[in-house]
Design brief:
Layout: H1 2-16, E1 31-33, E2 36-40, E3 45-56, E4 59-71, H2 74-77, E5 87-101, E6 104-114, E7 119-130, E8 133-143, E9 148-152, E10 169-171
Antiparallel strand pairs: 1-3, 2-3, 3-4, 4-5, 5-6, 6-7, 7-8, 8-9, 8-10
Length: about 180
């Protein structure tokens, strides 16, 4: 009886974190806007500073600052001959990080979008809101291949702010049709 009740209790969790209709294409072009950019081409790093907005397909990332790590060269991506064109590998965001996907908003203090591994990790005061159901904790990992979201109560290695008491908390929205 307890096991069946637990399964019924977890159904809203599965619904709140369910996979989206189509998987995210991390190879799609990335558009961005910022107050300014600093490029260190030898280090393969571009830093976007101030009111940063990054968009890839239907996913948007906003933050105070985003560091884009890439291979290739900025000069080669602008049509200059020779060498490898620029390919972004990872985005490191900090300060008021918000990731918005269809029907989902995730927030945290710091964020990493690993485009190669197709993982988004948010650390510190994280929350995931999906259609009104909210989960809070210290670390959130979203696997863009499976759309599986995992929330831990504490941040990695003790860094960042943990969830309340080092635990995960939240609220699930009850389907109004089920009350009939």
């Amino acid at each position: 009886m307890i096991r069946r009740s637990l399964v019924l209790l977890l159904l809203p969790v599965a619904s709140a974190l369910a996979a989206q209709d189509k998987p995210h294409d991390s190879n799609a072009p990335i558009d961005w806007e910022a107050d300014r950019i600093e490029v260190q081409d030898r280090e393969h790093k571009a830093t976007l500073i101030g009111n940063v907005h990054v968009r890839q397909q239907e996913m948007t990332l906003t933050a105070d600052r985003v560091v884009a790590l890439y291979t290739g060269s900025i000069a080669n991506s602008q049509g200059n001959s020779g060498g490898e064109a620029l390919k972004v590998q990872r985005l490191d965001a900090n300060g008021h990080v918000v990731v918005t996907r269809p029907n989902e908003v995730a927030r945290g203090n710091y964020g990493i979008d690993d485009l190669q591994k197709k993982l988004i990790t948010l650390i510190g005061n994280v929350s995931l809101d999906r259609n009104g159901s909210v989960v809070r904790g210290g670390r959130l990992v979203i696997d863009q291949t499976t759309d599986r979201a995992t929330v831990d109560g504490s941040a990695v290695g003790g860094a960042g702010t943990t969830g309340k008491g080092g635990r995960v908390s939240g609220r699930f929205v009850v389907d109004q049709d089920s009350k009939k």
